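Fold this sequence, please.
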Amino acid sequence: MMEAVSNIGWAVIFAVVGGLVGIVLMMIAAVMIPKLLDRLTPTIDEDKEMARGNRAVAEYFGRVVSACIIGMSIVIAAAILGGILAGLL
């Protein structure tokens, strides 16, 4: 019985640490991805185009950034799940 409680405790610790690392990674990604996109398109000033009302640029920028964030979220969730399973098994 003590081993099961210990394993659950480790699973909770792995989940919390993984969640905190995931939060930090997502914050870094939310800052770095728009900067990376600005560097990849040097001839287009996305902020100025969005301010002028160019919906195509706004939708492209939003879709690329959101796809990157969703992709990172899936990877982080898999890492947290792996930590939980490692703690329980």
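The first helix runs from residue 2 to 40. The radius of gyration is 19 Å.
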